[in-house]
Amino acid sequence: MLLMVGLGNPGAKYAGNRHNIGFMALDRIAADHGFSPWKSRFQGLVAEGRLGDLRVTALKPQTFMNLSGQSVGEAMRYLKLTPAEVVVLHDELDLAPGTCRLKTGGGHAGHNGLRSIHQHIGEDYRRLRIGIGHPGHKDRVSGYVLSDFAKAEEGMVDDLLRGVSDGAAALARGDGAAFGTALAARVAPAPKKPRVSEKPPAAEKTSEPEPLSMTDRLRALGDRFR
Fold first, then answer.
1. 74-106 pLDDT per residue, tens
2. Helix (H, G, I), strand (E, B) or coil at 42
3. For 159-197, what is each residue's pLDDT tens digit?
4. 217 exposed, middle or buried (CB, 10 Å; 0-12, 13-18, 19+)?
5. CA-to-CA distance for 68 and 62, rounded, in angstroms?
6. Which of 9, 39, 79, 183 has the maximal Cβ count within 10 Å?
């Protein structure tokens, strides 16, 4: 069994925020893979289903980001799981938009949701780091993560979420290579086709016979009457 957690803040006000990409990804997985309807449990919203051969409990903590660990810890203990059986989907400032990286253990890098989870279950859980890019200066981070994706980014975000969903079974079983392949099929740019010249090929020039001299013309005329 696996506990799959998406991080975000509850409520319509935050639904489209970059900080909520974990919620978005988990919603797409649950919808695409036929999970049960969401219901309130473990200080969050829970849906159940299967990814490949694994039974999965999907959890979206409703405690707000900074207290996510309360919900995750309660669910993990009730389900009698270990941190190794928990995978957390979250936004990552240090990755470019449209990219993902898998990681097990390690620090929280200042992410408040991960910091809270560290406090409640330790650091030995798996993470799917979903890139949202960095605003360029630390003073702009708070406003940036709590702002919605730009209109021009919507196609990229949709492709990314589809890729994460396509690779969800591989993610659940810990097959990073297969997950990466599924993701790349959605987000990698299509190879460029060779440019075809619109100009038709130039016609080959044929050499024209040189004009006959007057002497040659008279000689040809005389030959006709012989």
1. 999 999 999 999 999 999 999 999 999 999 999
2. coil
3. 999 999 999 999 999 999 999 999 999 997 655 555 655
4. exposed
5. 8
6. 183
**What pLDDT score does 110 carry?**
87
**What one-letter code names the amino acid at 5?**
V
Return the bridge partners of 219, or none. none
Mapping DSSP to helix (H, G, I), strand (E, B) and coil, where does residue 168 land?
helix
Detail the DSSP E strand segments found in 93-209: 100-104, 126-131
90 is catalytic: no
Annotated binding site for tRNA: 14, 64, 66, 112
Q: What tokens were used for 46?
A: 């829970």
Amino acid letter, 218:
L
What is the β-pairing status of strands 54-61 and 44-51? antiparallel
Distance CA 168, CA 203 (A): 57
In order of 47, 218, 219, 220, 221, the CA distances from 224 in angstroms are 103, 10, 9, 7, 5
In 3D space, the residue among 71, 138, 120 whose CA is nearest the CA of residue 57 turns out to be 71
Closest alpha carbon to 111 in 99, 128, 97 = 128
Please, which residues bridge with residue 129 across strands?
Answer: 90, 101
Spatial separation of the C-alpha atoms in residues 111 and 114, rounded to whole Å:
5
Q: Tokens representing 212? A: 């006959």
Q: 44 and 60 in contact (C-beta within 8 Å)?
A: yes
Cα–Cα distance measured from residue 26 to residue 60, given in angstroms and rounded to the nearest whole number:
8
Q: Which of 27, 19, 17 is nearest to 4 (CA)?
A: 27
